[in-house]
Amino acid sequence: MKIARYLYQKQIRYGIVRGNVIHPISGSLYETWEEAGEPVVAGDVQLLAPLIPNKLIGIGLNYAAHAEETGKPIPDEPMMFMISPTAVIGPEASIVLPNVDDRIDHEAELAVVIGKRGKNIPAERAADYILGYTCANDVSNRVLQKKDGQFTRAKSFDSFKPLGPVIETELDPSDLEVVCRVNGDVRQKGRTSDLIHSVPELIAHISSVFPLEPGDVILTGTPSGVGPLSPGDQVEVEVEGIGVLTNRVLGPLDDMAL
Which residue of 10, 42, 69, 235 shows the fewest CB atoms closer than 10 Å? Predict the structure, then answer.
């Protein structure tokens, strides 16, 4: 089941996507809901980020090939960091580069959406706490990442966390293709079967530190091939079984002109 968050007739709603039609729902996405209201054609709505996360948790160096390209050792346990949820944007929204001097990279990722509160969750029960999955682009300022020695500022600028286009609730995350294309050229291609720490292991590890709650999002790491973005680029993140998340890239002066 694919769940979309969208703007239609000045109202933000959730709906179930079936083919080219979105069926509105009422109630809580994390508790009980039902279909209610007239279906709408997907082309008539503005798709938004499928949620604004409660907490946004990143995982670094979770593919061996990516760790190798950065010249860093593979972590013995998941390398966690926090990102501001205010960085989230949706499909077709613009990634705005704060400057054109720093190297700012794309990172295609599978994102996990938590659906139920849990603390100290065993890995074998992790699926019980997952609402679904979406695509993410973990846009990162490499200059600030190196300067700060940690990731929060480098990854939390407005527009640096595209999510979407939908939440897919019926998906096995163990072996999915993750692809990034920039201007139609493939930059990244990997499979979640190559994750150093699997989705259940990530949930177990994170929830041993603090509770996971409905609406939390975990970015699971990126394959090798990360590269810089430039104003005018169109970047696509595609995760098998979910869809394609597309965003254009603007420079700071472009943003001021909007």
Answer: 10
Query: For residue range 188-238, what is the model confidence (pLDDT) as tens digits?
Result: 999 999 999 999 999 999 999 999 999 999 999 999 999 999 999 999 999
Tell me which fold the domain 56-257 belongs to: Fumarylacetoacetate hydrolase; domain 2 (3.90.850)
Are the C-beta atoms of 247 and 148 separated by less than 8 Å? Answer: no
Amino acid letter, residue 44? D
Please state which of the four CATH numbers 2.60.40, 1.10.10, 2.30.30, 2.30.42 is assigned to the domain occupying 2-47.
2.30.30
Q: What is the pLDDT of residue 258?
A: 47
Kindly write down the DSSP assignment for every residue of 50-96, as one continuous string: S---SSEEEEES-BHHHHHHHT-PPPSS-EEEEE-GGGEE-TTPEEE
In this predicted structure, which of 25-29, 53-57, 73-77, 98-102 has the lowest mean pLDDT? 73-77
pTM beyond 0.90: the answer is: yes
Measured CA to CA, the distance from residue 61 to residue 107 in angstroms comes to 11
Distance in angstroms (rounded) separating the CA atoms of residues 217 and 113: 5
Q: Could you state, in order of their start, the residue ranges of all structural domains in the chain?
A: 2-47, 56-257
Q: Residue 134 in contact with residue 215, Cβ under 8 Å? A: no
Distance between CA atoms of residues 15 and 37, nearest Å = 10
Of 234, 211, 250, 188, nearest to 63 by C-alpha is 188
Strand-pairing partners, residue 35, are 25
Q: How far apart are CA 97 and CA 117, in angstroms?
A: 35
- Would you mind telling me the total number of residues written for the chain in this entry? 258
**Structural element, H or E, at residue 41:** strand 40-41
218: its two tokens: 């975990």
